[in-house]
Amino acid sequence: MSTLLPIALITYKEGIRNKAFFGVSLVALLLLCAGALISIMVPQEMGKAAVDMALSVISFSGLLVVFFVGINLMAKDLDRRTIYMVLSRPISRSQYIIGKFIGMLFLIVMTMLFVSLLAIILLFLLKMGYPDRFERFSWSLVLLAAFLSTLGLVLLSSLSILFASFTSASFVTSALTVVVYIIGQSLGDMKTLVETPQSFPVGISPFIVKLVQTVYYIFPNLSLFDIKMQAAHNLSPSFSYIVWTALYGLFYTCVAITLAALIFKKKEVP
Amino acid sequence: MNAIEAINISKEFKRGIGYKKVRALEDLNLEIHKGEVFGFLGPNGAGKSTTIKILMDLIHPNGGSASILGKDIRSVEARRSVGYLPESPYFYDYLSAEELLWFGGRAAGLTKRAIAERSEMLIDKVSLREARTRHIRTFSKGMLQRAGLALALIHDPDVVILDEPMSGLDPIGRKMVGDLLVELKSQGKTVFFSSHILTDVERFCDRVGILVAGRLRMVDSLNNLLSDGAALEDVFLREVKAAGGGIEV
Questions:
Q1: Nearest to B41, CA basis, from B244, B242, B235, B247
Q2: Chain A residues within 8 A of B80 when measuring between CB atoms
Q3: CATH tag for B1-81+159-249 (out of 3.40.228.10, 3.10.270.10, 2.60.40.1930, 3.40.50.300)
């Protein structure tokens, strides 16, 4: 831990001081204000719209930080050879990977806390101004949705570290992370679609069904971490869903970081 | 026990679309004694940086083994007593020189007090006092080089490996590095540095090794090499010429 903390701290500082981070914070603030204005324009659905938009901004901001700041924290280390200043210390490759991950974790948690706080303030003001429009509203669900969204982003970050461990260009890491994000978001729906024959007018070959099912178990199902709609409609997911989703995220993250550490042990940084 | 020992180190890189093999080092044997200043010379592409990166376990040799103060270079412990300055060092943009040194000290297991004392001393030594709280992204190339030197020395290592320490430095910076080398030598530290600047090598080194096209052509003390009145430049050019061209496979 005494070695992990310095790596995590410099990674976090490098991320939080990045200009892109301030840009994302500003975008989040503007989007939250826009969301509040839009929800006022739909008085019948104001509560649902406000919660949905606030949670969308929270997860979108986190995603921007992962893509524009987080990924670069390790990928650029390799691109620009800043990694030499770390690996020339008595630090093992595994410690480097874990330290980087903890640093990214700090960054994501801080971003999500900050944007969530802004969102909560806006929701609170709206709720104070229009209490009758927020009858079906639950703070705990909003917080739960933000928490699960954070877990999803942490998982995505761990995958970006895994990709950086075997690629040599930050662009490739970014591209792979985007692809996995897109697949991960649509995987649950795709699986449901191919497993429900009546949803297609034409038959789906068993091969396609098997392929989608295989892909489903390889790629992370990021849609599990998205409960914005439930939160907006005040529909609480079951306790077991929350626990299993959290464990799923944790397990997947641990596997990705372990694999990254194993791969990175052999990697050369010429 | 030698400070640095390399036995039959060889290294090949795969380059280009066809993964053409390029041999960077061939059966390199090297012994650097404790307390000496060793100059590692060679033309561009000779394999000097490759050797240093292998010693720092940044890249892995295809064959052979190496140790630093008796510890296998693949072990984390081998790097505890080594300070390394890469060629053209890059650091995190948004850290200050103070934070950089804090990181180096913490990673080496120094106490808070030791970090504070060593940082203060080194920041003065590399003339970064006024810039110590500025973000590194605002540093000039020479300042980066000096910050890198301070980082290499923060944990008071017994072995210092410097890859082109004078590159990018103005005459004042070069004098500063020269003074540091002299001071390290007087403290009994082992210094292994690569350089193109032969006058610097002549000034500071006890022994030199000349590497050409991945092969170590010779290792000898400076006194022996220059005993007949020859200049180091003549010796260097003679060895390079004798070695001929590259050794691509």
A1: B235
A2: 90
A3: 3.40.50.300
Q: Chain B contact for A86, CB < 8 A?
A: yes
**Residue A94 identity (one-letter amino acid):** S
> Quick one: tokens of A60?
């979108």
- What Cα–Cα distance (Å) separates residue B115 from each residue in B69, B107, B119? 24, 11, 6
Tens of pLDDT, residue by residue, chain A (270 residues): 678 999 999 999 999 998 888 899 999 999 999 999 998 888 888 888 999 999 999 999 999 999 888 888 888 888 888 899 999 999 999 999 999 999 999 999 999 999 999 999 999 999 888 888 887 888 999 999 999 999 999 999 999 999 999 987 888 999 999 999 999 988 888 888 887 766 666 677 888 888 888 888 888 999 999 998 888 888 889 999 999 999 999 999 999 999 999 999 999 888
The answer to whether residue A246 neighbours chain B at the CB level (below 8 Å) is no
At B37, list the tokens: 């200043």
Give how many domains chain A has, as a whole number: 1
| Six token digits for residue B35 | 């307390």
Please check the confidence at residue B165 and state whether its pLDDT lies above 60: yes
* CB atoms A10 and B76 under 8 Å: no
Q: Collapsing DSSP states into helix, strand and coil, what is residue A227?
A: coil
Task: Measure the CA–CA gap between A244 and A148, rounded to whole angstroms.
Answer: 11
Which residues in B lie closer than 8 A to residue A85 (C-beta atoms)? Answer: 86, 89-92, 100, 103-104, 148, 151
**Stated pTM of the model:** 0.91
Domain with CATH 3.40.50.300 in chain B: 1-81+159-249
Residue range(s) defining the domain that contains residue A99: 4-266
Q: Which of A152, A119, A123 is nearest to A30 (CA)?
A: A119
Sheet with B4-15: list strands edge to edge: B20-32, B4-15, B63-68, B71-72
Min Cα separation A270/chain B (Å): 6
Which residues make Cβ contacts (< 8 Å) with residue A60, sequence separation at least 6?
Answer: A28, A31
Nearest residue to A137 (alpha-carbon basis) of A127, A147, A148? A127
Could you tell me if A19 lies within 8 Å of chain B, comparing CB atoms?
A: no
B19: contact with A, CB 8 A cutoff: no
Cα B227 off chain centre by: 26
Q: Contact at 8 Å (CB) between A58 and A115?
A: yes
- Say how many C-beta atoms besides its own lie within 10 A of residue A193's C-beta: 14
- CA separation (Å) from A108 to A44, A102, A115, A265, B200? 34, 10, 11, 26, 48
How open is the CA angle B144-B160-B224, to the nearest 5 degrees? 115
* pLDDT score for B193: 92
- CA–CA distance, A30 with B141 (Å, rounded to integer): 39
